[in-house]
Amino acid sequence: MVKKLIFEIKFKNFYANADEWLKDKIDKQLRFLLQNPRHPSLRLRKKKGTKYYLADIDYFYRLILKIEKDTCYVIDVGPHDIERKY
Q1: How far is CA 84 from CA 26, 28, 40, 54, in A?
Q2: For each of the chain's 86 residues, which pLDDT tens digit applies?
Q3: Which CATH superfamily is domain 4-79 in?
Q4: 31 alpha carbon, distance to own chain's centre
Q5: What one-character DSSP code corresponds to residue 15?
């Protein structure tokens, strides 16, 4: 169970420049991550062959995460093809 979120600089930069509607969606998904990581709208899954996890924000945007014990590092956010960077 995730108890703590740590935000990396790439995520912070994206979030700071995002529109309010997108910030609201991101906030909602982060709440789900803390309350119930298996929530169906997150579609949380491990990226094969890496230490990263993917979670959906909506049809177009994804979160890149790294989970260690009860801490989740929110690495980056962007369109679905962002996972290619990781």
Answers
A1: 20, 24, 23, 11
A2: 789 999 999 999 999 999 999 999 999 999 999 999 999 999 999 999 999 999 999 999 999 999 999 999 999 999 999 999 99
A3: RelE-like (3.30.2310.20)
A4: 11
A5: H
- Listed by start position, the domains of the chain span 4-79
Regarding beta strands 71-79 and 4-7, do their DSSP bridges make them parallel or antiparallel, or are they unpaired? Answer: parallel
Given a contact cutoff of 8 angstroms between Cβ atoms, the answer to whether 79 and 72 are in contact is no
Whole-angstrom distance, CA of residue 25 vs CA of residue 18? 11
How, if at all, do strands 53-56 and 71-79 pair? unpaired
Q: What is the 3-state secondary structure (H, E, C) of 19-86?
A: CHHHHHHHHHHHHHHHHCCCCCCCCCEECCCCCCEEEECCCCEEEEEEEECCEEEEEEEEEHHHHHHC
* Contact present, 30 and 74 (Cβ < 8 Å): yes
